[in-house]
Amino acid sequence: FDMKLGIDLGSSTAKLVALNNRNELRYKTYRRHNGKVKETLENILSELPEKLCNEKFTITITGSAGMGLASRINIPFSQEVIALTKATRVLYPEASTFIELGGEDAKIALFREDLAPEMKMNGNCAGGTGSFIEQMASLFDVDLQTLNELAKSATKKLYIASRCGVFAKTDVQSLLNKGENKSDIAKSVFIAVANQTITTLLAGAEVKSKVLFAGGPLTFLSELRKSFVESLELPESDFLFPDNSEVLVAIGAALLSEEKGKEISYGEFLTELKNEKKGVLTIRTLEPLFKNKEEYEEFKKRHSKFNIKRLNEDEIKNVKEMYLGIDAGSTTTKLILLDENNNIIDEFYSNNHGSPQNIAVTALNKFRKHFNEHKLKAAYATGYGEEFVRASLNLDGGIVETMAHFTAGSLFNDKLSFIVDVGGQDIKSIKIDNGFVTDIQLNEACSSGTGSFIQTFASNLNLTLNQFVEEAIFAEHPVDLGTRCSVFMNSKVKEALKDGVDIKDIAAGLAYSVIKNALYKVIKIKNIDELGDNIFVQGGTFKNDAILRAFEQLTGKNVVRLNISEYMGAFGAALYAKEFVQNHPEYESKFDIN
After folding, report:
1. Please, what are the domains in the chain?
2. Would the pTM count as exceeding 0.90?
3. pLDDT digit string (tens) for 394-419?
């Protein structure tokens, strides 16, 4: 046969290559699949050049998303490390080491004379991989190439944990909130990835030249390659940067097809793909969030009763005093302006886009008209970036997040037994007995039950948050995804997608998982009765009807969600500002809108 086909179906991308009998690359494609592995492969095949479609070829599939499909369509499968080793040995025999980064995995092989190669892959953690870098880029609100360009201007290195995307996100968010140079942070992300891979996989083993780099991240991100070169402390001449390194695993699969591949024609391959035998579903399912549309309508009606009043323009003219609350959260910034009766004059909500101070200034410019007409008595901040925002804007004071949420909840119900606030990266729970706080819990390190967790998965499924809710609400068989960290969960979601589970059922399953993680991993409740009967939910995540309903379903309790649940931190800060002024009537605010 003149042609060899290699297909690499990775965690994030699908790659296909065709080699001739001299092992020369005649065709390649590299494409994101967004979880739709089979559909993407079918699209790639439909675009193959006519010459390839008229020939028979040998074929092998590889990649983390390829094994199940390969077995169902009866095409030989090869493990990625084996495929990459084959490509390296045949095309780059001078290499003594290869390092490959994929979407969710990292691989290293050490070649020694007269010995079998020593191969290592990351286990269950996706820290230091392509998806990890994408998560970091999302915090800057930029794409990967822009992150790479930013890193080129760096002047110093900052500490960022790379052992887990959750820890790193916290470090990066903290650095952004402190106003560190974005170029320095971007470069430090790449250095963290290099150190993570080298430390974890090499584990002290000696690296000999030459070192070959492969995989999409190392192909497309020059600053990442540079960080690896610097971390390995070898001269640049000891590294190989091969052409087509992003498809090198697929090339290895094509080379292996000569030995173990299947001989097949283009038409036969399409038929096998079309007639794919579905695997037997072994995934546990849960109760639907809603049995029908009527039940959902009743749910919406019940929660529409709990409102804080927003003043109209005529009512605002009669305002005597104003109190400002700012909640500088891990991923969003919220501002709220209250009158003397705790009614809302104005509010503002936005993603941080890597600069909470700039967002706060934008919001204050929106509020400026009110300051021209009414007197501000005090301005208080709370949240993840409280200190930075408070200092940079010269506010009157600040309040710890948990107390801001307690102050806000207590205003609405003085018999509260439990408050849970789910934010972008944090979860706070407050147990209350007779108006006194008896216990406070915060997630220490894991963000698997938070808003950013659900946002990440919605993006992975190619859905907006609104679409995610719509999909989840009427799912008939929500998948039980358990209570695990986001990296493990990602694998479970991809496994479900490969098994043909409907996106609706995955979305609903994720809604359940967010609440299970919050209740059992963060709050660590042993008995639902610990929550009491007066439960108050807060935070932007609970604006999501699927999440709120999952909480009700899992606890068996009706809960209260205000119409401003995402503003409750800012609302509590404004209330605290008002309380301070009432206790100090002579106080003059030092905050100046100008």
Report:
1. 3-275 (3.30.420.40), 293-305+413-561 (3.30.420.40), 313-400+571-583 (3.30.420.40)
2. no
3. 999 999 998 999 999 998 888 899 99
